[in-house]
Design a protein that fits this description.
It is a single chain. By secondary structure, this protein is an alpha/beta fold. It has 22 helices and ten strands. Strand 7 and strand 8 form a beta hairpin. The radius of gyration is 36 Å and the shape is elongated.
């Protein structure tokens, strides 16, 4: 057996290394595990291990000092350094002093295997893990625990590129391993470079709640979001390989984790057809909101649209990016109908940007900026349009207030989209179209009441109110007096 020691001043790192692989199947025995450089040196000198996994920065003695001592004493121990530091100077010093390799925390199983394969003592054992470990590491769990079973793929979302975040995730999983295995309801294991949690006697919904509680706890303590994918319930070890594949594939939804307030997902999430219908519905509503220039309405529709798109759980980012580009295309086509001159974004460039995003939140921010730019251009044009169209609208109202005119009728007259004309009109008058038309009609009504002998019914009809009751109600709301009372007062009757 190859003898190996490990040393690190962070207990969860040591625990993680011990559980990283089936050491015995590789022909390796861990003969010592140490929390500092001093005790590690004692272990090296007394046990003379074949391989030492050493943190490069520890209290007592650093990893480099231990390597120098190994060289000075002529020991055959080969050293692999592990550290959170990525600076080139550390790597260069380690390799110049004869280190076998240098790995960055958290250590990845495949990378550690490559490093071990370079050790002289390990050459005869490389590949033996596959030969000797035909029984899956999780198999004994099924013998001792009852169905239903639920598989969880858990870790830091792929959008978190920070090595510090990955290290915190590594810490979380080691603490979770201890918590779950002490409870007797679960088993934490690695398959390839992925972390999985096998839970027994727990429904899918209970597993979701349990993982959310664990995720919330690590977020409060470490500020790291954990994304967990929950499989359906199953009843046999025979189903495990299929569940591992499903969870691994569905973990692409971690792309969305930075967008949601909760970071746990069930598989499958939603019927694809129903989700697509909702996306199209909110795309149309968002387009109408942009044309209306109503900022609150735009925000509400945007929020619903991006949430529904996320509900599709598209694993390919080009498809998600295309969905947003398609929405922008629809908006731009509608704006073209209004005869407004908008500086259009390059959708091909946006498509590429979307494909390269590390998270769904990053993608939504890119497209939200484009929408804000369009909204800003529309507002500027609405504010500047004291032009022929604006004058034509006012003149038409003044000339035709006695008729049954509406917003669409005047918008068509000036060649504008109805939504846009409504916002444009309010921008220039300070009133919406309906209130402005009412004001014009009532001003003419008052003039008729003062200068003619017309009755209330005749006045109402003369200013465009075929229903005298509606006219009376509107007049009283504005002047706090019934039109009949007003006539008697001003005419002295």
């Amino acid at each position: 057996m190859i003898r190996l020691i490990m040393a690190d001043d962070e207990p969860f790192i040591l625990s993680g290394l011990e559980h990283l692989m089936d050491w015995k199947s590789l022909g390796i025995e861990i003969v010592g595990s140490y929390p500092d450089g001093k005790s590690a040196l004692e272990g090296i000198l007394t046990l003379e291990p074949d391989i030492a996994l050493l943190d490069i920065s520890m209290p007592g003695f650093s990893g480099l000092e231990l390597l120098e001592r190994i060289e000075a004493d002529g020991l055959r121990t080969e050293v692999i350094f592990i550290s959170g530091f990525q600076e080139f100077d550390y790597v260069r010093s380690a390799l110049l002093h004869g280190a076998l390799d240098y790995l960055v925390k958290p250590v990845v199983r495949s990378e550690l295997l490559k490093s071990l394969s370079r050790a002289e003592c390990f050459c005869e054992n490389v590949g033996s893990e596959e030969k000797e470990s035909r029984t899956p590491v999780y198999a004994p769990f099924f013998r001792d625990h009852k169905a239903p079973y639920v598989l969880v793929r858990s870790g830091v979302p792929e959008s978190s590129a920070s090595s510090l975040d990955r290290l915190r995730s590594f810490s979380f999983l080691e603490r979770l391993r201890s918590k779950i295995e002490q409870s007797g309801h679960g088993f934490v294991f690695r398959n390839g470079d992925d972390d999985f949690i096998l839970l027994s006697g727990m429904s899918r919904t209970s597993a979701l709640i349990y993982m959310k509680e664990c995720g919330d706890e690590i977020y409060r303590k470490n500020g790291v979001r954990i994304c967990s994918v929950i499989s359906e319930e199953f009843s046999s070890v025979v189903d495990m390989e299929a569940m591992i594949i499903k969870c691994r594939e569905a973990y692409s939804c971690s792309y969305y984790a930075s967008f949601f307030s909760t970071y746990e997902y069930l598989i499958p999430e939603k019927e694809a057809v129903a989700a697509s219908v909702e996306v199209m519905k909110w795309r149309e509503m968002l387009t109408a909101a942009i044309l209306s220039l109503d900022e609150d309405r735009i925000d509400d529709c945007w929020s619903s649209f991006v949430t529904e798109v996320a509900g599709l759980r598209e694993s390919r980012r080009d498809e998600v990016s295309f969905c947003f580009c398609n929405c922008l295309r629809l908006i731009l086509d509608k704006l073209a109908d209004t005869r407004l001159k908008i500086s259009e974004p390059d959708l091909n460039v946006l498509m590429e940007k979307g494909r390269e995003t590390g998270s769904y939140l990053e993608l939504t921010n890119i497209f939200r900026q484009e929408l804000s730019g369009i909204h800003r251009q529309l507002l500027e044009q609405a504010g500047q349009k004291k032009t022929k169209e604006y004058l034509v609208a006012l003149e038409y109202i003044e000339a035709h207030y006695q008729e049954q005119i509406g917003l669409k009728q005047i918008a068509d007259l000036v060649g504008m989209n109805t939504y846009y004309f409504s916002a444009y009109f309010k921008k220039n008058t300070g009133e919406n179209f309906k209130d402005y038309l009412r004001k014009v009609r009532l001003e003419h009504a008052v003039s008729l009441m003062i200068s003619t002998d017309k009755s209330v019914t005749e006045v109402a009809q003369a200013v465009g109110y075929p229903d005298v009751r509606t006219f009376s109600d509107v007049f009283q709301r504005v002047y706090d007096e019934k039109p009949s009372s007003y006539i008697r007062r001003v005419r002295g009757k």
